[in-house]
Amino acid sequence: MSIEEFFELSAGKWFSHRTSHHLAFKQSESGKSDIVIEMLAADHPEVIKLCEQYEIDPKRASCGARVTWNGTMEWDEQDHKGSTVLVPVPNEDNPNEGKLLREMGYAEKMPVAGSYKIGDDEALTLITEYETMWSEERLWFASPNLRMRVGVLKRFGGFSMASFTSEIRMGGTASAKASEATNSASS
Length: 187
Prior knowledge:
By secondary structure, this protein is mostly beta strands. The chain has a single domain (about 5-185), classed as Lipocalin (Beta Barrel). It is about 15% helix and about 55% strand. The chain contains three helices and ten strands. It has a ten-stranded antiparallel barrel.
């Protein structure tokens, strides 16, 4: 599966349920979100703008996605809402690896570029280094309408959080090409 196919398969409306384990506090919490993922063409103005922000030739971008979320976490009463644009920029010698440009990071609310890799098992691994922390997240499809992810967040020399998330497609459909790729992987 290519990064473009992974993004295409991810397009749609999802219900997300996350369980996070805060290792320093020896506590866990759960959260729920509605997530909408919209595909953006490689020549979309937001994709071009993000590439230029990182001083990367926009012609190297393979596609883009706008991710919007609205959720709640167990420990706090505030809503967690936001939106970001993601742009994968494949390595020229190996398109299954590259940079992932983000308009806004997950762990710190600032623009950040990380790296991605699509493995032989068709799982997407994202590694992002922030100023004060490092995160690794692995995403895969159990079926075209069920996406899983696990993540770890490390700061100040030790792991501080681990999470597991299941996401169920609630609307929109995966492209036929991406669905075929997932179905052949599970065979």
